[in-house]
């Protein structure tokens, strides 16, 4: 009788050990199946910002209502009230880009805004001088530039408006460059040309192959002045 009891206890112990081993193997298998999913999971941050600096000086700040970081990538997705602030070497704010969506490339330190774009620029005195709208905009922290493309419109507080397809704004010099065709409107004056180079309020500029028309002389003659 004792031998039967001992045999029963031994068999029960083996069964428990076998069940434990099978459960452990199942957990390991499940962990391995979930590993690829964890590798592509993302980190979601709300009301956060990214600060870039150069030699201890704040050079750019990117903020949004939602930042989504995907594992094993250098790109961050921006959603909801995207703001990109660009600072010059003295720490002065020189440009603010706003939009609804965008991305950040951490490796190249660039921030792109792709929806609802509006950019405000400041002159050397710190006062706002012009506003830009476009389909796409990109701020390059290392180059200290803001570039825009697609139905670009730049309107200065001096009343001058530029229409083109691509503009590059240099934060170091606070000047615009438009490498392609440009239409510049100042009141009744319309100038067209290529390769625009202008200051931030568009009051001083140069272009190649300039052609234009003006109604100012005709209006002055008709008024007798």
3D architecture notes:
The structure is a single chain. The protein folds into 2 domains: 1-39; 42-217, Lipopolysaccharide (LPS) transport protein A like domain (lipopolysaccharide transport protein A fold), CATH 2.60.450. By secondary structure, the chain is of the alpha+beta class. The chain is elongated. The relative contact order is 0.08. The longest helix has 38 residues, at 2-39. The N and C termini lie far apart (131 Å). A 6-stranded antiparallel barrel has the order 4-5-8-9-7-6. The chain is 20% helix and 58% strand. A hairpin with a 5-residue loop joins strand 6 (118-122) and strand 7. The chain has 2 helices and 13 strands, in the order αβββββββββββββα. It has helices spanning 2-39, 216-223, and strands at residues 42-54, 57-70, 75-87, 93-105, 110-115, 118-122, 128-133, 136-140, 145-156, 160-170, 175-186, 189-199, 205-213.
């Amino acid at each position: 009788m004792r031998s039967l009891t001992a045999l029963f206890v031994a068999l029960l112990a083996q069964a428990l050990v076998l069940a434990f081993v099978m459960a452990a193997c199942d957990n390991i298998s499940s962990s391995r199946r979930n590993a690829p999913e964890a590798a592509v999971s993302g980190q979601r941050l709300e009301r956060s910002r990214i600060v870039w600096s150069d030699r201890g000086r704040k050079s750019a700040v990117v903020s949004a209502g939602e930042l989504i970081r995907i594992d094993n990538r250098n790109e961050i997705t921006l959603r909801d009230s995207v703001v990109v602030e660009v600072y010059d070497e003295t720490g002065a704010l020189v440009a603010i880009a706003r939009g609804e969506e965008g991305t950040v490339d951490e490796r190249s330190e660039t921030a792109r805004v792709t929806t609802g774009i509006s950019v405000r620029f400041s002159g050397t005195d710190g006062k706002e001088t012009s506003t830009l709208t476009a389909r796409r905009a990109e701020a390059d922290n290392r180059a200290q530039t803001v570039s825009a493309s697609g139905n670009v419109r730049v309107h200065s507080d001096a009343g001058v408006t530029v229409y083109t397809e691509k503009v590059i704004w240099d934060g170091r010099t606070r000047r615009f460059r438009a490498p392609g065709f440009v239409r510049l409107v100042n009141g009744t004056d319309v100038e067209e040309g290529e390769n625009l180079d202008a200051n931030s309020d568009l009051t001083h500029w140069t272009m190649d192959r300039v052609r234009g028309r003006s109604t100012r002389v005709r209006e002055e003659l008709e008024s007798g002045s």
